[in-house]
Amino acid sequence: MVFITKPVINQIFKKIKKYNSIIIARHVSPDPDAIASQLALRDSIAETFPEKKVLAVGVGVAKFKSYGVLDKQDYSNIKDALLITLDVPNMSRVDGIENLNYKEIVNIDHHPKEDIKAVVEWNDVTCSSTCQMVAELIMDTRLVLNKKVAANLFLGMVSDSDRFLLKNTTAHTFEVAARLIRESELDFPVLYDKLYIRPFSEIKFQAYIINNLTIIDNAFAYIKINDDILKEYNVDAATVTNMINNFNFIDDFVVWCFVVNDVKNNQIKVSIRSRGPIVNVIANKYNGGGHKLASGCRPKTDEEVNKLLEELKNAAVEYISTEKVSE
Ligand SMILES: [Mn+2]
């Protein structure tokens, strides 16, 4: 197998080589792909170029601690940094760069392109994860691939493709994964615990969702979770949104949506998944975005939530009816 280095990978590597200070950021409310790509790239650059200052910024998440530690130091005195944004297409969702003086941006992302203006833009919606892209960047250049870096990248790839199950998984995804395992001699089966071990209370909470999901017209399913329920099951708002992929492959609906009232952060969080209808265009209208079949948003009011649910239901019902016609 011959792997052809993409020109954009060389351009990114040149920027990394050129700058003495590099700040690596990703989206707010990070998922494993965001946090793992960020830490893997930081650790790889730091090991390849020990003289450089490389910081991974943003708010940490306790349950992702084992992936590595974010840099908490003040960077307001750093001038002329290179900012590398990962797994995020819009500037407003980049976490932790409020006081940063950066000179140029390199963006590496697999979401549909939005407003980030990068001097080098590697945006590829055909990639299943940002970790897949960072893995290629590292393996196709002289950036160091150690076991810790490889483990993080593998976890991000597995997580964002839902164990190579989602439609964004391609032959290339498997090629990068195989290469990553081979080149780092990664013992990957032991890593799955990190992603999938969970307390029994979460399974009980999943049963609550199963028993309380509203299904409309064999097309659309949704549930609204309030703070009392979160407390009763001892789970947080992120647990709800992380659970949404477990409801794939259910014959009774093509679009499903979890709404959670996150009192702690004073916001309404919505996760949406689809087996057909394009949902990110709807999520975009309610302070959100994401992928065609996997999106999220943050409506401001209950009224907005209800409008969103109505739009999603209509999209689902319409999809089902056209599918029936074409059968
Ligand atoms: Mn991602």
CATH architecture of the largest domain: Alpha-Beta Complex
Rg, alpha carbons: 20 Å
- Secondary structure class reads alpha/beta
**Number of DSSP strand runs:** 11
Strand content: 15-25%
Distance between the termini: 40 Å
> What's the CATH H-level homologous superfamily of the largest domain?
inorganic pyrophosphatase (n-terminal core)
CATH class of the largest domain, please? Alpha Beta
Helix count, DSSP H or I runs of 4 or more residues: 11
Key structural traits:
2 domains, Diaminopimelate Epimerase, Chain A, domain 1, binds manganese (II) ion, single chain, inorganic pyrophosphatase (n-terminal core), 327 residues, 11 helices, alpha/beta, six-stranded mixed β-sheet
What would your notes on this structure say?
This protein has 327 residues and is α/β, with parallel strands linked by helices. It folds into 2 domains: 7-195, inorganic pyrophosphatase (n-terminal core), CATH 3.90.1640.10; 200-326, Diaminopimelate Epimerase, Chain A, domain 1 (Roll). It contains 11 helices and 11 strands. The strands form 2 sheets. The chain has a 6-stranded mixed beta sheet with strand order 6-7-8-9-11-10. A 5-stranded parallel beta sheet has the order 2-1-3-4-5. Strand 10 and strand 11 form a beta hairpin. Helix 2 (32-48) runs antiparallel to helix 4. The chain starts with 6 loop residues before the first helix and ends with a helix. It binds manganese (II) ion. Manganese (II) ion (MN) binds at residues 33, 87, 110, 129-130, 160.
